[in-house]
Amino acid sequence: MRIYEITFTGRAGPAVGAEFDDCEVILGTGTTTLRADLPDQCALSGLIQRILGLHLEITQVNLVAPPLAP
Q1: pLDDT for 3-33, tens place per residue?
Q2: Which domain holds residue 21?
């Protein structure tokens, strides 16, 4: 698992926040950051597509924690 943070423009209201109940929603000044523990690139792509499907503008995608070495 890898932890990603995806930031988009605007502060998510309750309706948008509910769309991402599987993520930690962090409200900033004029931005919203989703923090999610994702198993692979396919899951990351799916989350990005969900954001774009709501016509939100992604400004940043960060890998916060890479997978731990075995």
Answers
A1: 999 999 999 999 998 999 999 999 999 999 9
A2: 8-32
